[in-house]
Amino acid sequence: MPEPRATAAGRRNAARTREDLLTVAADEFAARGFFGARVDEIASRSLTTKRMIYYYFTDKRGLYTAVLEKAYADIREAEQALDLSALAPPQALQSLIRHTLEYHEAHPNLAKLVATENRLCAQNLKATHRQSALNQPIIRLIDDILDRGLATGDFRRRPSALELHLMMSGLAVFRITNAPTVEASFDIDIRTREHLDELVATVQSMMLAWLRTPEDGAGQAPTS
């Protein structure tokens, strides 16, 4: 039996309100950090009330944790939508590298939120039961690319998927969080499109060259 129209509409409105709160809160926490962000400001900008924020998220920390979870969920969802299994391993890796750097460029709040959480020693991520499950898909995705690359002979070494993920995401995050100090130190803006394209091409070339090189000693003739 169909649910009453009012109930369905109410649920849609509640979902939109929650989504709006998370979007506004992400901007606030990314700009001001956990302690600098103000629930009053978030309520005002989202055209709701503090009471509604506490209804949905219990308290400020609950809201902040929900923002973090959504930020990670969003990037993992975007990665899964790439359908890299249809590409040959080298092309799949190149596509993932470009996507990682471009995603962070288009969603700078993610890097800023990660920086904020690191200053808090990841205490909120450690407390959430969703974090591990949220981030396992990217490891499985890279595992698949590496395993296929070894099977086809495109790759000759097998690092851990986590190792590659940290390399890619580390560069992507650095471009966002350290752009001001890089510009102040070296008079270069690393947030330009030109610099992004150059970095993508460089990282793609370096990673593929590394993966195509045998592990130390592998494939070498023994010495007497």
Summarize the structure.
With 224 residues, the chain is an all-alpha fold.
Description:
The termini are far apart. The relative contact order is 0.10. α8 (131-152) packs across α9. The longest helix is centred in the N-terminal third of the chain and has 32 residues, at 5-36. By secondary structure, this protein is mainly α. It is globular and about 60 Å long. The protein has helices at residues 5-36, 39-45, 50-57, 60-80, 89-106, 108-119, 123-127, 131-152, 161-177, 179-186, 193-211. It has one domain (5-211): Orthogonal Bundle (Tetracycline Repressor, domain 2), CATH 1.10.357.10.
Count of individual helical segments: 11
Please give the CATH class: Mainly Alpha
Helix content: over 70%
- Write down the CATH topology: Tetracycline Repressor, domain 2
Biggest β-sheet description? none
Strand content: under 5%
Order of secondary-structure elements: HHHHHHHHHHH
Number of domains: 1
CATH superfamily: Tetracycline Repressor, domain 2
Indicate the overall shape. globular
Span of the ends, CA to CA? 81 Å
Radius of gyration: 21 Å
Structural class: mainly alpha
* Average predicted local confidence, pLDDT: 91
User: Any guess at the CATH architecture?
Assistant: Orthogonal Bundle
Strand tally: 0
Low-confidence stretches: 219-224
